[in-house]
């Protein structure tokens, strides 16, 4: 398995990095790992409260989130899905998804990179052999590692060349979320001379992984989602997930099954949960501002002494609350469906091949429904909060705009219109979608 290493710092790139020392006290404070579901959620809530204190300022400074990754490590949240036998939390996916949502309430950027890291850490459960899964989990958990991934499907696949007992990786990806501050990077490419895809996990801190430090977008500014060049990165054949290193061919019972394509709705559900978390954080922050600063409108047929008595303000907050509650409930339903599938079919039971295309497709459409609702509701709430906070709330110091900018930036990751169309064919014709890199 890839050796442990510290990530390339963006201090030499476009933005300086935040200093991990600012969160050092939490290393000891959070030394004991949570146990129950409620304890894990409480820990995520503590992280949320830490992050929200200066989220607007950090977002405006645009510093690489090295300190925030250290905070996640101190909290133990990176270990929540890992097997207990290696020191992990042993929790199912519905707990992980809820933690992503909670962290995103405090800082959508950190919620996003946290969600991606959890996802990449669990990828081996889907595409790897049981032996690879056990080895990688032990390595990640025992070293408390943070993961990124150079797997943007809109770009050309990385090229993978076999050279004896090793693989040589080359290529370019326009997006590589969290890579700059990661310990390990997931690579995906196509083996030369074939159409077969390979996943592997390598140390980030090596000369062949070259970050451009060019992430300077309107939102999700602290996610280090810029481009990366992969140049002659070498990995052993034994780390080709789901492949036989002797025959150098995919293992059929791992690769040629609907189960492998569960990766796609699983990451889409990561997205929806941090969308909802961002919107919840926006509503909470706006409400605090309204209670403290928003003034009533004096030029009304029924003027009020307090903004808290204004009909339109109460109506808007009530409507936002109702729609966010509905979105969260729908997400919880999908989160539970993910847990059910991964607990029913998994590498420890050696029954991943029993998942049917229909089961996989129905899960994908449950997730698609959450994606549509979380996108629509999230954008509506994060833009609408200015209607109930007032003109002074548009100040950069207040920073309410970051919620909308973060959501607007990531919700164009893939067109939600295609999710609506898929759901239309499912509702009208009973069809489940053919798996793609985005479905």
TrEMBL record:
Keyword Oxidoreductase: yes
This protein's name: Thermophilic desulfurizing enzyme family protein
Membrane-spanning residues: none
UniProt-listed SUPFAM superfamilies: Acyl-CoA dehydrogenase C-terminal domain-like, Acyl-CoA dehydrogenase NM domain-like
Record-annotated Acyl-CoA dehydrogenase C-terminal domain positions: 269-413
Oxidoreductase is among the record's keywords: yes
Domain Acyl-CoA dehydrogenase/oxidase N-terminal: 47-135
Gene3D superfamilies on file: Acyl-CoA dehydrogenase/oxidase, N-terminal domain (1.10.540.10), Butyryl-CoA Dehydrogenase, subunit A, domain 2 (2.40.110.10), Butyryl-CoA Dehydrogenase, subunit A, domain 3 (1.20.140.10)
Sections of the chain in a coiled coil: none
Keyword field: Oxidoreductase
